[in-house]
Amino acid sequence: MNKLAIITAFLGGVRNRYMVYHPDRELEAKLEMASKVIGCEGVELCYPADFSDIKETKSLLDRFHLGVSGINFRSRRTGKWLRGSFTSEITAERQEVVDDLKKAIDFAAEMGCNRITTCPLNEGVDVPFEADHVKMWDYAAETLTAACSHNSKVKIGLEYKKNDPRTRVIFGSAGEVASFCHWLDVDNLGATFDIGHSLLAQEHPAQAAVLLAKTKRLFYVHLNDNDGFWDWDMIPGTYHLWEFVELFYTLRKLGYEDDWYAFDVFSKEVDQVETFDAVMAMTRKLEEITDRLEPAEVEELLTERNPVKSIRYLYSLI
Amino acid sequence: MRWKYSANAGFFGARHDRFNQYQPDRSLDEKFALVSQVEGLTGIELKYPGDLDDIQRARELLERYRLELSAVNVNTKGIDYFRHGAISARSAESRRRAVQLLKEGMDIAAEMGVSLVSNCPVMDGYDYPFQADYAQAWGDFIAGLREVTAHRRDVTLMLEFQPHDPNARIMLNNVGKVLYLCAEVGVPNLGSNLDIGHSLAAGESPAESAVLLAGKGLLRYIHSNDNTGDGGDWDMISGTVHFWHWVELLYTLMQTNYAGWIGADLAPRHFGPGEAFHTNIMMIERMTNLIEQAGLEQIQMLLKQDGNTPRIFEKLTASFSI
């Protein structure tokens, strides 16, 4: 069974363009909150925010009995890299992000999680003729290959997302990440598969998961839900109930079952511990429904491709 | 200039999205200075609470920078007691405060000599199924707006629909609901501020929405901008994505003799607000020019024919050839 982790950034102040929700908090307060969430077994740490003193970070993790699912490398920083870091037109910025990512890779090795995830949100464009797409893809290839060569044991997952803050981010779908990784042919570069982002790209998450697994790029899974219009980071299953059951069933088939699920769920008006309690409970409920699926029966239904029979079977389980 | 252009002062200061801040914080004085430098802008839209807390100061700035107040924008966002809703909130106290704020905005507008108050009711919405009691929320929404508009009839409240943000669903999320709401409230001083980006984000053709509103006398104000149509309210320069939809909208405004303001909500991120607002005006003027070159009557005639698309575009693009 996959273990459950919370991304630390979602335990402090979060904002959208209009509002700020919850106070900013120090790592200690965030980890204390994570330890209070029923069913939470670890955290995804954010770099650089959570790494000002790695000894202190490690001792806090021990104190609160929390594991580490991965390190989230921020490729967007306050006041810089606004026009991209991996794909910036400025050579010094590209060098700077590679150097910094190498430091995060060293931390991932030291923490033993051997996994980096990065959401390249500023790498993209807003309008036609804004940037040279040929150069942008070449820059992405060059910088990410350089970073990956630093330590082949540490996996780097590109967390694709269609938009925000750019109207179009360079990595927007599973297919784009899969073909990019295929082009580069670097074994430790793959995808962080965020289900909300997959839904935003109008994907069937289970279908996308298989493509990523077939191309050996399914490195890591983030769970959350949305309405298909925007990355609202909602509680899994509140919009896409059966998609999540199909996803969990498929991930078991693909062998992603002794790993981590990390959550980016955006709590607005409701207390964050209370929200994450619901997130953990809802996830385990969805897994319980998945447990009730009888593999032999499901496989027969999938072969038959009769949606009416499949749906009747699904509803017999709840 | 073919149209009366105004700018929303808020867009000349710091802007945020979920991840970044763009543009520095600027004082109201600095915002006025920047707006006044943009060729073609004669109006400015100011916020209450905020820009209009000190009316005397706002008056002095309007005079000094020779700008006309186009509308008072009452802001119900970002205030703690509206987090679970404003006009439609479960809490009677939150509803009372929202109604009070809108009434104050109307009084300020009258005092400043303008008859338009705009409000984008983004806090009246929800995220999850089973979060809202729709019957209660709509009932209170309608009752609240009746009370606000009864406060004084010489000022019109213009509601600006928007599909979402910060709520995943805003109650007033498309033109159809505006039409319904205005009919339900049934007063002459309730109208609409049509934000073109919001209409595109709601999957509409803005020209069609404008016709529906104008037909009921509800089209009182326009916020110009554009977006990618993915649902995000990107506040981009008009015509950079939906060029032909914008041309069609301008044709419609000409057809319906729209004489109101063309305001703008533009979020410049990697360049200055002055440049963004000026380019926006130039784009709208250029697109308007395109219609004039094609001939309003010619377009009107072609619109009466089935299968007119090839001829319409031939007409509209005639001036592209050198």
Question: How would you describe this structure to a colleague?
Answer:
The complex is a heterodimer of chains A (318) and B (322). Chain A is of the alpha/beta class and 318 residues long. Chain A is 43% helix and 16% strand. Chain A has a single domain (3-291), classed as Divalent-metal-dependent TIM barrel enzymes (TIM Barrel), CATH 3.20.20.150. Chain A has helices spanning 27-36, 54-63, 91-111, 133-148, 174-184, 195-200, 205-214, 241-254, 272-292, 295-304, 307-315, and strands spanning 3-7, 14-15, 20-21, 42-47, 67-73, 115-118, 124-125, 155-159, 168-169, 189-194, 218-223, 260-263. An eight-stranded parallel β-barrel of chain A has the order 1-4-5-6-8-10-11-12, surrounded by six helices. In chain B, helix 3 packs parallel to helix 4 (134-151), helix 7 (206-215) runs parallel beside helix 8 and helix 8 (243-255) packs across helix 9 (273-294). Chain B is globular, with a radius of gyration of 20 Å.
Brief rundown of the structure:
The complex is a heterodimer of chains A (318) and B (322). Chain A is an alpha/beta fold. Helix content of chain A is 43%, strand content 16%.
Question: Tags for this entry?
Answer:
heterodimer, A: 318 residues, alpha/beta, TIM Barrel, 8-stranded parallel β-barrel, two-stranded antiparallel ribbon, 11 helices, 12 strands, B: alpha/beta, two-stranded antiparallel sheet
Q: How large a portion of the residues of chain A is in β-strands, by DSSP E?
A: 15-25%
Described by its quaternary structure, the protein is: heterodimer
How helix-rich are the residues of chain A, as a percent range?
A: 40-55%
Any idea what the CATH superfamily of chain B is called? Divalent-metal-dependent TIM barrel enzymes
SSE order of chain B, as H and E? EEEHEHEHEEHEEHEHHEHEHHH
**How many strands of chain B?**
12
Q: Architecture of chain B, CATH level 2?
A: Alpha-Beta Barrel
Poorly predicted ranges of chain B: none
Structural class of chain B: alpha/beta
Q: What is the SS-derived class of chain A?
A: alpha/beta
Describe the largest sheet of chain B.
Answer: 8 strands, parallel, barrel
Tally of separate helices of chain A? 11
Tally of alpha and pi helices of chain B = 11
Q: Gyration radius of chain A, to the nearest Å? A: 19 Å
Tell me what portion of residues of chain B adopts beta-strand conformation: 15-25%
Strand count, sense and closure of the main sheet of chain A? 8 strands, parallel, barrel
Q: Pair with the most extensive interface?
A: A-B, 31 and 34 residues
Terminus-to-terminus distance of chain B: 24 Å
Q: If you average the pLDDT of chain A, what whole number results?
A: 97
